[in-house]
Amino acid sequence: MAVYNLCMDLPAAEMSKRRTDVSDLMQNELARMYSACRLPGFVGLCFWLVTASVALAGPVPAPPQLAANSWVLQDHQSGKLIAEHNADERAEPASLTKMLTMYVVMAELAAGKITLDDQVLVSEKAWKMPGSRMFIEVDTQVSVIELIKGVIIQSGNDASVALAEHVAGDETAFSDLMNQYAQRIGLQGSHFVNASGLPDPEHYTTARDMAILANALIRDFPDHYSLHAQKEFVYNGITQYNRNKLLWQDVTVDGLKTGHTQAAGYCLVASAQREGMRLVSVLMGAKSERERTRQSRALLAYGFRFYETHRLYQAGKSIRDMRAWKGVSETVSLGLNEDLFVTIPRGQYKQLQPRMEVAKNLQAPLIRGDVHGKLKVSFDGAMVLERDLVILETVEKGGLWRQATDSLRMMLE
Q1: What is the CA 64 to chain-centroid distance, rounded?
Q2: Preceding omega of 256 cis (within 30 degrees of 0)
Q3: What's the mean per-residue pLDDT of the chain?
Q4: Using an 8 Å Cβ cutoff, are 257 and 54 in contact?
Q5: Nearest-angstrom CA–CA distance, 284 and 266
Q6: How far apart are CA 194 and CA 97, in angstroms?
Q7: 237: part of which helix (H) or strand (E)?
Q8: Which domain holds residue 400?
Q9: Phi, psi (5° rounding) for residue 381?
Q10: How does pLDDT run across 189-235, given as a tens digit for each residue?
Q11: Are residues 301 and 332 in the same domain?
Q12: Which is nearest to 384 in space by CA: 349, 344, 336?
């Protein structure tokens, strides 16, 4: 097994981003020096240099402690959990349930089983649903796309049931479908018995599962994700506003879902994207609507302030070209099946060290997709990531002459 240390040059976009961060911090520290460091020139300058260096690459403070039952802050691209508290504690999801309702509907759309233009006949059960409503009328027909907006923007319980009945025949069958999809995307602490989130002893989730679900929605259905940023929706002459107040307070926030019942408290799953870095926050059991907004904003601010995410390698791109012994081609490229992202404390990119472990002699046939090594990434001396290295293009066996000469060369090396 050969080991290769890899050199990573910071991409131009990352360099630009870093310069912006440094510039902002330098301006802040200059202001501090002027107002707080009226010492003799050299001493004052030394004090500023020390405080500036701490701000740029100092220790990361502990995450904010929030007045809520559980929470999670996660980077969408790398999957790193930046902060968590009682992440696996069972909780009532309330209307956060509708994220899974939407996941199932989007999956059925993608599979061609329903269409956005389908007309849905509103049942009496859907029409009579209590709680938040879209105000659809019994025995009328409403398009799937309007019902989707009614669920995402207005949090309509009536729209959720109407969609469930359209997809699966009735809400019970739809709930079975919800649990199947939940298992498929990795929700290990959840169980669902309805499409709206009305309370039931067998209807539960965790903050970790809600983060997994939010990431799946963003990743798997990007074409429809923009609906989560829509602030209002008018149906039947009634204008209703998105309950996610962060949409009005932070232009980088573009989703996702609020929830509230007396037992669940005030819940919010939020997502924001700044300079290519996307974070997902989950807050369960806050004491008020105002507090769930304020505390979710604090979680996101902490993540963006103290962490940064880098794409180290792109899927399908060569990380290293190796000698392909006895093949029709003399070299073969090794790379990754998926983009590789890493989330680290800000200003500490140079602490990353990637290395490859690969068999010394790669011999044809080498089949595209086959695993032939490991990529390991350490940060500050500790291993943080490990991924399979795969063959990026098939290399067939060469002719008899190539095989014979390469056999001789291998013996001499």
Answers
A1: 20
A2: yes
A3: 88
A4: no
A5: 7
A6: 8
A7: none
A8: 314-412
A9: 90, -10
A10: 999 999 999 999 999 999 999 999 999 999 999 999 999 999 999 99
A11: no
A12: 344
Q: 280-306: per-residue pLDDT in tens?
A: 999 999 999 999 999 999 999 999 999
Q: Among all residues, which ones are annotated catalytic?
A: 95, 98, 155
Among 251, 281, 309, the domain boundary falls at: 309
- Of the candidates 355, 251, 351, 368, the residue with the CA atom closest to the CA atom of residue 308: 351
> How crowded is residue 18: how many other Cβ atoms within 10 Å of its Cβ?
16
If one counts the domains in the chain, the total is 2
Cis-peptide, bond into residue 222, ω within 30° of zero:
no
**134-193 per-position pLDDT tens digit:** 999 999 999 999 999 999 999 999 999 999 999 999 999 999 999 999 999 999 999 999
User: In this structure, what token pair is assigned to residue 146?
Assistant: 């309007």
| Cα 302 from Cα 308, distance rounded (Å) | 11
The helix/strand/coil state of 308 is strand
Question: Taking Cα atoms as reference points, which of 107, 147, 58, 85 lies closest to residue 345?
Answer: 58
Kindly state whether residues 161 and 228 are assigned to the same domain.
Answer: yes
Domain boundary among 287, 309, 331: 309
E strand or H helix at 363: strand 362-363
Is residue 255, in this structure, part of any structural domain at all? yes
d(CA 21, CA 346): 9
CATH code (residue 180) = 3.40.710.10
Tell me the sheet residues that pair with 354.
377
Instruction: Tell me if 39 is assigned to some domain.
Output: no
Tens of pLDDT, residue by residue over 313-366, are: 999 999 999 999 999 999 999 999 999 999 999 999 999 999 999 988 899 999
In degrees and rounded to multiples of 5, residue 24 shows phi and psi of -60, -45
pTM (2 d.p.)? 0.85
